[in-house]
Amino acid sequence: MANAQAGGQWYPPEWPGRIRALASGDLTPVTPKRAATVMLLKDTGAGAGPAVHMLRRRTSMAFAGGAYAYPGGGVDPRDDDRHVRWAGPSLDWWAGRLGVDRAGAQAIVCAAVRETYEEAGVLLAGPAPDAVVGDTTGADWEADRAALVARELSFAEFLDRRGLMLRSDLLGAWTRWITPEFEPRRYDTWFFVAALPEGQRTRNASTEADRTVWITPREAADGYDRGELLMMPPTIATLRQLIAYGTAAEALDAAPARDLTPVLASARLVDGEIVLSWPGHDEFTKHIPTGGAPA
């Protein structure tokens, strides 16, 4: 079970021991898996800025149980080499933006769109480069969504079956975080922003979540600061970044200029204590006595 050390920061009790093991050379970091997550936005019309769709991970989840997050998940290896119906910026453009090769770019963008559909029921795809599907509810849609979740159907096959093309132009790459080296489950995650398409609505379609909410970034950040909403560092960091934007369109317009240099926590020994820090995000810094809990 995770602890909240400062505000609602997700802090597993096993971290200090794992950090010490890493520092002593007794722990070998696992290779992070590529993943994508989407901050789905919709305008509130109340002058409070856009709301973001968040889900609360079930407390039984091995990774970040009880924490609020965005729809997302790991890439499907089948999405890196199959022909995918595609609209928007080219794969070469996305490869340059994400800092990967063409195959990697396709897999990461596919993961962002697929996971949003799997976990929130929202599909960033359409029958033409300038169109988006409307209502995606119904038994036939649910059967396809369940097949995607079970990996019985690849995303490329799903798009072909539906006569749809992925609308990569509806996504904006926002930031990139890599799980710390001392974590047993590690992810190299690209965060995207997207606006909720007209005619679609979110729902809790994820077996990993027990609650979903539409909440403004400021409200979510205030809940975190009060210790009421548990979050991992990248989640609260991105929420604070979104507060500055008055509409979903403003956030999307800002995305192309965002720095995608990966954020990776470092743990170092200083004056008899371990200092855990995330570059550029001082609020998450932890001082861990060599034999005790973090301060």
List the helices and strands and how they pair.
Layout: E1 3-4, E2 10-11, H1 15-24, E3 33-42, E4 51-57, E5 68-69, E6 72-74, E7 86-87, H2 91-98, H3 102-120, E8 125-126, H4 139-149, H5 155-162, E9 165-167, E10 172-178, E11 187-195, E12 209-215, H6 217-225, H7 233-242, H8 248-254, E13 263-264, E14 266-270, E15 273-278, E16 281-289
Parallel strand pairs: 3-11, 7-9, 10-13
Antiparallel strand pairs: 1-2, 3-4, 3-6, 4-5, 4-12, 8-9, 10-11, 14-15, 15-16
Helix pairs in contact: 2-3, 6-7
How would you characterize the overall build of this protein?
Helix content is 28%, strand content 26%. The N terminus is likely disordered. The chain starts with a strand and ends in a 6-residue tail after the last strand. The chain is built from eight helices and 16 strands. The chain has 295 residues and is an alpha+beta fold. A hairpin with an 8-residue loop joins strand 10 and strand 11.
Sum this structure up briefly.
The protein is of the alpha+beta class and 295 residues long. The protein has 8 helices and 16 strands.
